[in-house]
Amino acid sequence: MGHNQAVFIDRDGTINDKTPAYYIYTTANFKLIEGVGANLKKLQDAGYLLIVITNQGGIDKGEYTHKDVARVHRYMRELLESEGVQLTDVFYCPHHSDVQECECRKPGTLLIEEAIEMYEIDRECSWFIGDSDVDMEAAKRAGLRKIRVETNKPWGDAIQPILDDVYKP
Ligand SMILES: [Mg+2]
Ligand SMILES: [Zn+2]
């Protein structure tokens, strides 16, 4: 079993404001929600790995490409790095249920399971932060504790239970 603690984080509506467009696939439309960088820094400093899990079904629908997603994720990392945050990894599902079924689109848990394996994560000491029903359902199915934040809103003190939960040997 893994020994690392992680916080899994949804992207659209949780990290970035999704008001600008239905699908966010340009850097111009990618705006960090106020305070999210500082919140992630606190989680990082507490020893958590930070792993983004996001549904990007617009790829399957032909709205944008893997290359667009890569560009936006590079930009997201740069913005967060300027606040001292190093994301451990970013996983996305490119599928859409209108086109094909898959196990990775949340509430599916395949991406979470891959991350748990890859980074030797102890799910019992880990959390999921998201803004939607599918995030909460994915967290539940994966056996992670979860925190729901308000869509497009700062997290306030929502992460306090995670900070209080840090494993101390
Ligand atoms: Mg979301
Ligand atoms: Zn998928």
Automatic annotation (TrEMBL):
<dbReference type="Pfam" id="PF13242">
    <property type="entry name" value="Hydrolase_like"/>
</dbReference>
<dbReference type="InterPro" id="IPR036412">
    <property type="entry name" value="HAD-like_sf"/>
</dbReference>
<dbReference type="GO" id="GO:0016791">
    <property type="term" value="F:phosphatase activity"/>
</dbReference>
<feature type="active site" description="Nucleophile">
    <location>
        <position position="10"/>
    </location>
</feature>
<keyword id="KW-0378">Hydrolase</keyword>
<keyword id="KW-0460">Magnesium</keyword>
<dbReference type="InterPro" id="IPR023214">
    <property type="entry name" value="HAD_sf"/>
</dbReference>
<dbReference type="InterPro" id="IPR006549">
    <property type="entry name" value="HAD-SF_hydro_IIIA"/>
</dbReference>
<protein>
    <recommendedName>
        <fullName>D,D-heptose 1,7-bisphosphate phosphatase</fullName>
        <ecNumber>3.1.3.-</ecNumber>
    </recommendedName>
</protein>
<feature type="binding site">
    <location>
        <position position="12"/>
    </location>
    <ligand>
        <name>Mg(2+)</name>
    </ligand>
</feature>
<keyword id="KW-0862">Zinc</keyword>
<dbReference type="InterPro" id="IPR006543">
    <property type="entry name" value="Histidinol-phos"/>
</dbReference>
<feature type="binding site">
    <location>
        <position position="104"/>
    </location>
    <ligand>
        <name>Zn(2+)</name>
    </ligand>
</feature>
<dbReference type="GO" id="GO:0005737">
    <property type="term" value="C:cytoplasm"/>
</dbReference>
<dbReference type="InterPro" id="IPR004446">
    <property type="entry name" value="Heptose_bisP_phosphatase"/>
</dbReference>
<keyword id="KW-0119">Carbohydrate metabolism</keyword>
<keyword id="KW-0963">Cytoplasm</keyword>
<dbReference type="GO" id="GO:0005975">
    <property type="term" value="P:carbohydrate metabolic process"/>
</dbReference>
<feature type="binding site">
    <location>
        <position position="95"/>
    </location>
    <ligand>
        <name>Zn(2+)</name>
    </ligand>
</feature>
<feature type="active site" description="Proton donor">
    <location>
        <position position="12"/>
    </location>
</feature>
<dbReference type="GO" id="GO:0046872">
    <property type="term" value="F:metal ion binding"/>
</dbReference>
<feature type="site" description="Stabilizes the phosphoryl group">
    <location>
        <position position="106"/>
    </location>
</feature>
<keyword id="KW-0479">Metal-binding</keyword>
<feature type="binding site">
    <location>
        <position position="102"/>
    </location>
    <ligand>
        <name>Zn(2+)</name>
    </ligand>
</feature>
<feature type="binding site">
    <location>
        <position position="10"/>
    </location>
    <ligand>
        <name>Mg(2+)</name>
    </ligand>
</feature>
<feature type="binding site">
    <location>
        <position position="93"/>
    </location>
    <ligand>
        <name>Zn(2+)</name>
    </ligand>
</feature>
<comment type="similarity">
    <text>Belongs to the gmhB family.</text>
</comment>
<feature type="site" description="Contributes to substrate recognition">
    <location>
        <position position="105"/>
    </location>
</feature>
<feature type="binding site">
    <location>
        <position position="131"/>
    </location>
    <ligand>
        <name>Mg(2+)</name>
    </ligand>
</feature>
<feature type="site" description="Stabilizes the phosphoryl group">
    <location>
        <position position="54"/>
    </location>
</feature>
